[in-house]
């Protein structure tokens, strides 16, 4: 593959995507970043018409959530899927998925919503999760087994089981080779385009009750029953079946037309 087209391979979706082998492609980038930080590169300044030694550093990456897991090497799946909450991730297994709870922990300690039990059936008095520093992360990574990148013969067991001490780490991120990476406060940022699209799709799909996109589903109602919350939304059992009560965000036909006209 020619060098100008090397990064195109990172855009291949599906089974041919690099996934956790993305480090094979990141190696040239990391080597250049090391050079830019330590020695710099001779650069011409058009405004002053002089040459100077330019140094550069990467401040953070911007990506969607799955790539967040590939770059940080913290698995974004399972009971500890949140890289920020780390081992303090609040999760709950429902019928067919893992749900992430405890969002009220981020509110001020005296906020009235902390005592609202409609979210998960209990008052939330826990403090926000600990903010992990670079040194904290490196200390955790000391427990993680080394793994060769790419299709190495040493990687025969591609889906090895992690020890409990490894938490959700898969291996040490290649970005820690940059001597300043340890001290950066924010290193990975979620792309707002993906976040905005996902939220808007869910909100619009639920308001207009679009088949396949609404979150007001039978499974969601059964989850509420399992959690024993929002009893006014539980299924109403009838003689020959059951009925699904309307939720507060249900729009009438007239309201849907007005909503579409507004958009």
TrEMBL record:
InterPro entries: Transposase_21. It comes from the Eukaryota. Residues 114-129 have a biased composition (Basic and acidic residues). Residues 111-131, 144-163 are annotated as: Disordered. PANTHER family: OS08G0208400 PROTEIN (PTHR10775), TNP2, PARTIAL (PTHR10775:SF177). This is Transposase.
